[in-house]
Prior knowledge:
By secondary structure, the protein is mostly helical. The longest helix has 14 residues, at 42-55. Helix 2 (31-37) crosses helix 3. The protein is built from three helices and no strands.
Amino acid sequence: MTEDIKTTNAPHTWTKEEIEKIEKLIKSHTAREAGEMINRTKNAVLGVLYREKVKRGYVPPLDSKFARIRKYRKGFN
């Protein structure tokens, strides 16, 4: 049996130009639309935008209803 679909686990890296372009596109388009324009998925677009935000110093608030608090972690009281 031959396999026509080839998949890899290696993530596609983003170039600086792609990141700059997506940051401009997201201001006037949805993540899905912006992703389609550069042949990426919505989740890939949202992921790279979040990672860039974290690199710039963003720290999610601990009291956010969206933050997942893991009570089993050491030091949590």
